[in-house]
Amino acid sequence: MKTPLKLAALTALLLPMAAAQSDIDPNGKATFVTTAEPTFNPWSPNSFVESNLLNELLFPGLTRWDKNLRPSPDLATSWKASNDGMKWTFNLRRGVKWHDGKPFTAQDVAFTFNDIVLNKELGANQSSEWRNSVEKVNVVNPYTVEFVLKKPWASLPTYLGYYSGILPKHKFEGVKDPWKFVEFNKQNPVGTGPFKVVRVSSGASVRLERNDAYWGGKPKLKEIEFKIIPDSNAQLAQLLSGDVDLISVANPETLDRLKSNPNLVVDLQTQNLYYWISLNQEDPRFRDVKVRQALLYALDRPAMIKSVLRGYAQPATGPIAPIQKNFYTNKVSQYPFDPARAKKLLAEAGWKPGPDGVLQKDGKPFVIEMPTAQYQQLLPITLLIQQYWKNIGVKAELKTMDWNSYIQQVVVKRDYQGTVNWWSTPADPDVLPYYASSSAGTGYNIPGYKNPALDRLLEEGRRATSTSARKKVYTEAQELMAKELPYLYLWYPQMIIVKNKRLQGMRGVTQAADFQYAHEWYVTRK
């Protein structure tokens, strides 16, 4: 999700050589897609995968990721932590203007965090994580801010580059509820990014034009349009017709057709992203680790990867993906397909076959209500899980809905028993926001999993500064998560990005990182 989204990549193809200046179309336009009506505010609790990439063009953060996915300067030019790790000082870029011409200053940074993100009453996107770690943001002078922490946070600069855009204080003055500020969030946002919104056609498209005053120089593209196209087949059709320049392909079965098209380029990106099943631990059935382990043993994940993803993934062992070579380990508990072992574990947990073949305990059948979104491959994945679980006596009842309704029910209200989705995270082993007991029921801890031992490890990881110290901590954390299964880990997919050859200048990293350098994109003359 944030994701859906939502976080690390090496392209499978060499980037084309930069075009000569004479080949660049000065009036070039690129067209992308989004799945639903976007919200122009990266902190809105209703802003997810449909809004994330567009918001990267409008609202830069203090940092962004370089080609090696390390934090590099954006609205901040440099930063430094205090000796005890409890304060971080950020020097801000001078001469930056908001889209309406007002100057960007430290007041905007302090407002974004103190008044929006750290305001518990607002429940901003990602807010539980920031509130747990940041006490306040002080204005030192007009171009310097100081993050005062509640506890050390070594990966703060990385997280500041992860969908953490800065908002304009002057636009929100007098606004009581920033989430109901429709004029800004849905119509006329004001950012500091390389592009600005000039037209919103409700339910149809959003048009952006380049910001000639962008601090990084005049963007090479004149215009970017986002078409709102919920259906992946319709997205594909528009890509093939040339009406759309780039999509993320959900169905690998279409790849042969795409690779044979001379106008398209296929990039395979290995990201810091993993698919999972979340089992709501407000339901006492799922607090039993034997039940969680059994439900994972029941799945033939290699077969699912072959069926749904045509092999473009590998089984996951936890939230730290292989691309993080310094920290990833697969020397943890493994769950190969073993339905007999699954049945044995369920029997040990007290579940016995009923007359209809569905397992029962205390006279109640083992039925899991599983809402799913009509988005990419979520529905076929959930259907496969339903069949595998049926074979061990567990009944999954599916309910399909559109993406926005799904987010409201599952992520916002936590009204579900089981569900399938994914996390895309920064390329850093710090996964505390997704697992902290303090985030159960809020934020990104979707299952509501609580484990003080894991909390201590993840906090220790935030205090560690050397690679060796962090590796030791996160190896132990991976071992614990693989055994306990806060989520049922499915796989690490390869993201399939297909774009028109005329669109150039992308760095071939993750989409999130690519969109942080949109001023470099261009299209060649036809």
TrEMBL record:
GO terms for cellular component: ATP-binding cassette (ABC) transporter complex; periplasmic space. The keyword Transferase does not apply. GO terms for molecular function: peptide transmembrane transporter activity. GO terms for biological process: peptide transport. Keywords: Signal, Transport. It comes from the Bacteria. The keyword Flavoprotein does not apply. It holds the Pfam family SBP_bac_5. InterPro entries: Peptide/Ni-bd, SBP_5, SBP_5_dom. Residues 1-22 form the signal peptide. Residues 71-441 form the Solute-binding protein family domain. Belongs to the bacterial solute-binding protein 5 family. This is Peptide/nickel transport system substrate-binding protein. It comes from Deinobacterium chartae.
